[in-house]
Design brief:
single chain, alpha/beta, TIM Barrel, 8-stranded parallel β-barrel, two-stranded antiparallel sheet, 12 strands, Alpha-hydroxy-acid oxidizing protein
Length: 342
């Protein structure tokens, strides 16, 4: 089964708004929420996608060897590719009731692990979402990253205990979820987190802690001060705030400011292995891909997730071969051209 066949099978299963487009660029779903769209004008998801299209790769095939390695080391684990499935929640509301969050995460985590990568899982108002996600990660020998919303500390502590029991190799918090309506309406208040509060959350976590939702140099510095082991440069796919820049446009300056002091991941509009290569050249250690995995799982379950990973991975390897890279460490900024450089 190839990705085109997976997408064909997913059409008609995705609900009202997602059309399983040949290219998931945010244009067909625009600002439809519920649905896979972005907030307000719906342009941030489109901007994320187009940001990577404005970066070009430099071909250089005068090299000594054809061999390339896409192997990625992270927090003591070895992965086939520097690609992770991003967390998606409330799939039965935003897509269709073919899957619940629990059954979606079951397929996603299993498919990702079989393909040699790991999946981040989502969180929600219903405690059973995190309970099921962490149980799934435990069943996959801890190869998964439970992602906790920025709840009040007592709730974070309870969910962190579930994460510990799962044996997950890392835990994340998507701090930009502060913009989600259900968090704003939560009682007691949930949402923004100060550095000291994040330090307290970091102290609860016995494994590497990832802060997702960083879009500025100042945000990256605060995450580092809070003790994060990694950040995800992310605007939540445009779903929490309209009018933000693309993740591709802010990644280089964040990477320059961090200077290897913590791992950097990026998401938002990454749709091909060529995009993955561009992200690594601009300073990311790895990437997250979210929406396309929903189409993959709805199309063919865990097998669909595997098919998507292999597509992205083979495209990454091909681009490395054509641009002169032999392994991930050899991917350099000089291998791409950005709008500022043209």
């Amino acid at each position: 089964m190839n990705m085109q066949e997976v997408l064909e099978q997913s059409r008609g299963r995705m609900g009202t708004w997602c059309k399983s487009c040949p290219v998931c660029n945010g244009r067909a779903c625009t600002n439809h929420i519920p649905g896979p769209g972005a907030k307000g004008t719906g342009t941030v998801a489109i901007r994320n996608y187009e940001g990577w299209q404005d970066v070009f790769v430099n071909v250089d095939t005068i090299q000594d060897t054809n061999a390339v390695s896409t192997t990625f080391e992270l927090f003591g684990k070895t992965f086939k590719y520097p690609i992770f499935a991003g967390p998606v929640g409330a799939v039965d509301m935003h897509y269709s009731d073919l899957y619940t969050d629990a059954t979606y995460n079951d397929a996603l985590v299993e498919g990702a692990r079989k393909a040699g990568i790991a999946a981040f899982t989502g969180d929600g108002m219903d405690d059973r979402i995190m309970e099921a996600a962490t149980a799934t990660i435990q069943a996959q020998d801890g190869i998964g990253v439970p992602t906790i919303k920025p709840w009040p500390l007592d709730i974070v502590k309870a969910k962190m205990e579930l994460a510990k029991q799962s044996g997950a190799f890392a835990v994340a918090m998507d701090v930009d979820a502060a913009g989600l309506p259900f968090l704003k309406a939560f009682n007691p208040p949930a949402g923004r987190k100060g550095v000291e509060e994040l330090k307290a959350i970091r102290a609860m976590c016995p494994v590497p802690f990832i802060i997702k939702g960083i879009m500025s140099v100042e945000g990256a510095r605060k995450a580092l001060e809070a003790g994060a082991d990694a950040i995800v440069v992310s605007n939540h796919g445009g779903r929490v705030q309209d009018g933000t820049p693309s993740t591709a446009s802010v990644l280089p300056k964040i990477a320059q400011a961090v200077q290897g002091k913590m791992k950097i991941f990026v998401d938002g509009g990454i749709r091909t292995g060529v995009d993955v290569f561009k992200a690594l050249a601009l300073g990311a250690d790895g990437v997250l891909v979210a929406r396309p995995f929903v189409n993959a799982v709805y199309g063919a379950g865990a097998q669909g997730a595997q098919t998507l990973v292999e597509k992205l991975g083979s495209e990454l390897a091909d681009t490395m071969q054509m641009c002169g890279a032999t392994d991930l460490a050899s991917i350099q900024a000089s291998m791409v051209e950005t709008p500022a450089a043209k």
